[in-house]
Amino acid sequence: MLKRTPIILLISILLLISNVQASDNNTVEYPITITDSSGATITIEKEPGRIVSLMPSITEILFTVGAGDKMVGGTEDDKYPPEAINLTKVGRYTTINYETVVQLEPDLVILDEANGEDTIIRLEDLNIQTVMINPKTMDEIIESILLVGTITNNEDNAQEIVDGMRQTISDITDSTKGIPDEERPRVLYIVWDDPIYSAGKDTYPSDLITMAGGQNIIEANGWPTINLENIVSADPQIIICSGMGGLSYQIANNTRNNDALETVAAIKNDRVYPIKDPNIIELSGPRIVQGLEVLHLYMGDDWEQKDYTSLTDASQPHVDAADEGPEEEGLVQDGGNATANAPGFGVLLAISMMVLGYMGSRRY
């Protein structure tokens, strides 16, 4: 059994305090010069006091390092932590209301490549300073947290969070890195079931599956469709179902009840698992280590005996309740174009359209 890791408990405590103050030990001396994810060299003259975030993952990072009290605006997709819901909204991540941004008088806007080049140009034309955060790997997520900590004079908080994340990652990967390929369970991670969209090789879910001790059966990059015949041929031993707004449960039920998949090992052995909050796996923020823990729980035959005190009911449901799904929660996936409540018949067509946009976006 892996030793218990406190990182998610620490993150939760920080996020529950809406006005977390910077540690007295933080001694960032401005001006500072940093290099952002675009490779741009940026000088920040003074400690930012009015920050706008244009991506949910960035909002989570800001609150986690203790800069939530410096935020004056975010997107309509910001749902976590709960305090983020109260931020003044500046539109969706691809449809920014620049008039609202200007009215907020930010001294810094932190954005992502997925916001689009036009957004960057427009903000520059408005003489608003920007920093791009665009992590594509676990290491880059950690670097982004440290960078935000430096920018906002919360270096100690950021370092503490990162140290905990690294410990969680090390605890798990030290136990799985020696597993030979032939002993790793074959895993299929799907985000829609008609047609079946899956997580390919260059996605966070695929990276986490490998770190957790499994092997992704999808060889293609991105979020490709996969037909039923190929699934039967690959014979995944575990199927992970992820869907916005509680659709994970519907996708899992549809998958379990698909007659064409009845010979698949995951179906026969009842190893189809819905993810209550896909954002802990698909969003590039500090909670991604919680997603790693969830996936590691499911990788081995002994998953019921593994224990993580950092996992909570809010992040992942008990498997025996999987058929019911959550009664509430609107979930958003970074770079996607949808936020939905628990699904009913009328939302299915809309979700189908949203998924098409979601699949075309970058990895989370």
UniProtKB/TrEMBL annotation:
Membrane-spanning parts: 342-360
Any one GO biological process: cellular response to iron ion
Is this entry keyworded Signal?
yes
Q: What keywords tag this UniProt record? A: Membrane, Signal, Transmembrane, Transmembrane helix
Ranges for the region named Disordered are 314-336
Q: Which domain of life is it from?
A: Archaea
Ranges of residues in domain Fe/B12 periplasmic-binding: 50-303
Name listed for the protein in its UniProt record: Cobalamin-binding protein
